[in-house]
Design goal:
about 25% strand, alpha/beta, about 350 residues, binds adenosine-5'-triphosphate, binds iron/sulfur cluster, 12 strands, binds magnesium ion
Length: about 350
């Protein structure tokens, strides 16, 4: 291990991130005033349905959103005392793939189909380090071995299309940890893979995280993955954080009705048919900014109460390391007899 800072120290501090897209249909409010911290060495999961703003949040941190159509209206992201949001393209390129590395859902978007795999990993090393090409290549082979690619010398000379989906994701992980990053951002790293391969890639990601000591932001819509891997969880809905808690508390005692719905939607292993029990109703239209709570049309806790329609709830610190953006979060507390929603 690693020059990755003392575990627990704040590594990244995101404040008031607001991102919108100008589209033909109007302005899409994709991320609305998101704030969170990532501590050195921790695994933080971001969960939420499709379209809730998880990827836009991650991409904006690394300057990867196309602007236009994206517009970052506000936000700071202090990483090791420097604001990522204020960095030039050149400064961000020096950070990306080096101090902060990203793993995407589809490795083919990040791998160059025309270059041999070993060369691509070696190039990531050479881009950020002064060393001889042969040294970088040898390190690339070591990394392939580390991520469980057999015959790494042979495989290093092959092209991405000669690798299976799971193997390509292993290559992505090798590339991501090549420069010993202090922060890994993995955006749905296993969604495109079939279930058995998913488990292998996740445990590899876990091992890579332990090896490097890198803090990890793990974006997923799979609460099973969260339970398995994460220490803290941010739940996103309609571009905002609606709940924030450590993983055990979130599962035991969710304090936002949307989180309750997500937990109910986990497929039950003991059920005859394994299917998701989705939260009734559709995700919100991000073209309109409702004045009240964005969850109100789907919320079983609100029961038509006026304040839900008129006031957007802020994310309130509950004083025990958690936060909820629900006017009536205390009605979900176990000691208050936990309403079933
Ligand atoms: N290039 C774009 N142009 C217009 N709208 C966009 C663009 N990229 C994202 N959006 C919108 O921003 C919102 C947030 O998208 P985002 O990709 O962050 O969702 P997500 O939570 O990552 O969803 P998923 O789980 O499907 O990956 C969505 O409404 C999406 O349609
Ligand atoms: S504020 Fe009201 S509508 Fe929003 S989640 Fe809480 S109870 Fe439901
Ligand atoms: Mg996404």
């Amino acid at each position: 291990m690693t020059g990755n800072g003392r575990r627990g120290e704040s590594l990244l501090s995101v404040a008031d991130l607001t991102v919108e897209f100008a589209t033909e249909d109007g302005v899409v409010h994709a991320v609305n005033g998101v704030s969170f911290d990532v501590a050195a060495g921790e695994i933080l999961a971001i969960v939420g349905e499709s379209g809730s703003g998880k990827s836009v949040t991650a991409m904006s941190l690394l300057g990867l959103l196309p602007q236009p159509p994206a517009r970052v209206l506000s936000g700071r992201a202090i990483f090791r005392s420097r604001d990522l949001m204020a960095m030039s393209g050149r400064e961000l390129r020096a950070v990306r793939g080096n101090d902060i590395a990203m793993i995407f859902q589809d490795p083919m978007t990040a791998l160059n189909p025309l270059h041999r795999v070993g060369r691509q990993i070696a190039e990531t090393i050479l881009l950020h380090n002064r060393c001889r090409a042969a040294v970088a290549h040898a390190r690339a082979v070591d990394l392939l071995r580390l991520v469980g690619v057999s015959q790494p010398e042979v495989r290093a000379r092959q092209y991405p299309h000669e690798f299976s989906g799971g193997m390509r994701q292993r290559v992505m992980i090798a590339m991501a940890i090549a420069n010993d990053p202090s922060l890994l951002i993995a955006d749905e790293p296993t969604t495109a893979l079939d279930v058995t391969i998913q488990a292998q890639v996740l445990s590899l990601l876990q091992a890579a995280q332990r090896e490097t000591g890198a803090a990890t932001i793990l974006i997923t819509h799979d609460l099973g993955v969260v339970a398995e891997m994460a220490e803290r969880v941010l739940v996103m809905y309609a571009g905002g954080i609606v709940e924030h808690a450590d993983v055990r508390r979130l599962f035991r005692e969710p304090r936002h009705p949307y989180t309750v719905g997500l937990l109910h939607s986990i497929p039950r292993l003991d059920a005859d048919v394994q299917q998701l029990d989705p939260i009734p109703g559709a995700p919100p239209n991000l073209l309109a900014q409702p004045s009240g709570c964005p969850f109100v049309p789907r919320c079983a806790l609100s029961r038509g109460r006026e304040v839900c329609l008129t006031e957007r709830p802020a994310l309130v610190d509950l004083g025990d390391g958690r936060a909820s953006a629900c006017h009536f979060h205390d009605e979900l507390a176990k000691d208050k007899g936990a309403l079933h929603v």
